[in-house]
Write a structure and sequence with these properties.
The complex is a heterodimer.
Chain A (H helix, E strand, L loop, with lengths): L3 E5 H19 L5 E6 L3 H16 L5 E5 L30 E9 L3 H10 L7 E11 L10 E7 L4 E6 L1 H4 L3 E6 L3
Parallel strand pairs in A: 2-3, 2-4, 4-5, 5-6
Antiparallel strand pairs in A: 1-8, 7-8
Chain B lengths: L17 H17 L14 E6 L5 H12 L3 E6 L11 H9 L5 E6 L4 H8 L3 E7 L5 H15 L6 E5 L6 H12 L3 E5 L15 E3 L2 H7 L2 E4 L18 H8 L3 H7 L4 E3 L12 H4 L6 H20 L9
Parallel strand pairs in B: 1-2, 1-3, 3-4, 5-6, 5-8, 6-7, 8-9
Helix pairs in contact in B: 1-11, 2-11, 5-6, 5-11
Classes of the chains: A alpha/beta, B alpha/beta.
Chain lengths: ~180, ~325
């Protein structure tokens, strides 16, 4: 089945840049901000954001962590396989931080729910926002919306949105595929 | 890489594939991280009930399992034979079926009879985890031992492990041999002939009756406990005195220093201090005895989590 490319190369770069600027516009100085990438795919987006933000702001560092949500999933026994965990690297307390959860695709909202749940083991943030690269509207199963959105995509069941990153996949690209029935 | 165990129960190491063990270790890595968080609890087993059936005394295994279950948010029932109807003559299957009638999903069992866990798995509808059955197997101990070696040395494959002491009565030794061999480690058993199983060589291990020789050979020495409660069951003493045993097979500072290089010291606990190992070695930097205890919780969480993953909510009785 042919894949439809939604976003690539310059447009892709610009979208990342715009999200960085939106975050800076909203947060001002990033001193109390903590970026948290959700495993497994959100961390590629989060790492890119961190790199770009450091470039734009000229800061030495940004508080950054990666969070695995495997043990907090609600579909643990509905999936045909047990999900093996990825790594959590979050070595700071979230108390009083402005947390930005980062994922590549917002679909049903269940991963984000699990992410919120997992995150609370690390403290009580002042606020939590959600940044996603792709928002698949009309697919939500939980009342969860993103604060920062790279691109909204209207898709139907049976379609699959894939985000590829230069660092891990060799190319920056968002594509839409029809999954075989 | 597989994401699922090839087995429904954990009865012994024999039925696990090397991929299963690797999956358990990777999952345990995740739980080790969870255990370092300010809030050390995840909701994975929120809807699972686990019965801990201990027909034989145990402190650390029971506490370790109980803690692992609580960290995973499972509901738990504790049962020990000293306070139960088994004293009134109830059979094992009846006892367990009565507990399962109360909608229990998993059973963690310690039992004095070898094969009790296998027997149970054939007759009841629940996931069984063997927490030690007589002198037969103690799979979670073997897993946490290998996991601790992997953590300290970065690998298990090719590592030389000496298992020293009361091999004959030790379920830890048997499970450890199987687990280490599956992961590609070399194993040597060391102990007096009276405490060596007759067909030990058929397990694919080296055998020595000289502790100094074993220590010179190995990278890791796992000092087993002399099982005083199991000695002399056949009316014959296996060694003359504890003092003599300690002199010949006890690890002390002098012996350790004579090796001339660093090796890793392990002990499954509880320690008979001054018998199989002296305090100065047990408490030294070479010892990972307390790491073993810490890793035990993470490894048991991984086993519970992976086995529970196969429980289908829709067909549960």
């Amino acid at each position: 089945m042919q894949a439809l490319t939604l976003l690539e190369s310059t447009a892709f770069e610009l979208t990342v840049q715009r999200l960085c600027h939106e975050l800076i516009e909203d947060h001002g100085h990033l001193g109390s901000t903590a970026l948290i990438g959700l495993q497994p795919r959100g961390v590629y987006f989060a790492r890119r954001l961190k790199k770009e933000l450091l470039k734009i702001t000229g800061e030495e560092q940004i508080t950054y962590g990666e969070l695995d949500i495997t043990f907090h999933r609600d579909d643990f026994r509905q999936r045909s396989v047990t999900a093996a965990p990825a790594t959590t690297a979050l070595n700071f307390s979230l108390d009083d931080r402005r947390v930005v959860l980062i994922d590549d695709v917002l679909f049903t909202g269940r991963s984000i729910r699990a992410g919120l749940d997992a995150m609370l083991s690390f403290g009580r943030p002042r606020s939590v926002e959600l940044m996603v690269f792709i928002d698949r509207r009309f697919s939500r199963q939980l009342p969860i919306q993103a604060d920062f959105v790279g691109r909204s995509v209207d898709s139907i069941d049976g379609q699959h949105v894939t985000v590829e990153w230069k660092e891990s996949d060799g190319v920056d690209r968002v594509s839409l595929k029809q999954m075989p029935r | 890489m597989s994401d699922q165990l090839s087995t429904k129960h954990l009865l012994g190491i024999g039925e696990l594939t090397p991929e299963d063990i690797e999956l358990i270790f990777r999952t345990a890595d995740g739980f080790k991280e969870v255990l370092s968080r300010p809030i050390k609890k995840v909701p994975s087993l929120r809807d699972i009930t686990v019965a801990n059936l201990f027909f034989e005394n145990s402190t650390r295994t029971r506490i370790s399992f109980e803690l692992a279950e609580k960290r995973l948010s499972a509901d738990i029932i504790n049962f020990s034979s000293s306070s139960s109807s088994t004293k009134k003559g109830e059979t094992l299957i009846d006892t367990v079926n009565n507990i399962l009638a109360m909608k229990v999903d998993m059973v963690v069992m310690r039992h004095p009879d070898p094969g009790a866990a296998v027997f149970l798995s054939r007759h009841v509808e629940a996931r069984i985890i063997n927490a030690g059955d007589g002198t037969h197997a103690h799979p979670t101990q073997a897993l946490l031992d290998a996991y601790s070696i992997r953590e300290r040395l970065g690998k298990v494959k090719g590592v030389k492990v000496a298992i020293v002491g009361d091999i004959l009565h030790s379920r830890v030794a048997l499970s450890n041999i199987q687990c280490l061999r599956k992961l590609g480690a070399e194993v040597m058993l060391c102990g007096p002939t009276t405490l060596m199983p007759r067909h030990a060589a058929s397990l694919g291990v080296r055998i020595s009756h000289d502790l100094d020789e074993a220590l010179r050979w190995c990278d890791v020495a796992n000092m087993l406990r002399i099982q005083l409660e199991r000695q002399g069951g056949d009316g014959v003493a296996n060694f003359p005195t504890l003092r003599e045993y300690a002199m010949l097979f006890g690890l002390d500072r002098r012996r350790y220093e004579a090796i001339g290089r660093d090796i890793v010291i392990m002990h499954p606990g509880p320690i008979n201090r001054g018998v199989e190992i002296t305090s100065d070695v047990a408490d030294s930097g070479a010892s990972i005895i307390l790491d073993q205890v810490e890793n035990g919780v993470a490894v048991r969480m991984a086993v519970l989590y992976l086995l529970a993953g196969g429980i289908d909510r829709s067909v549960r009785q």
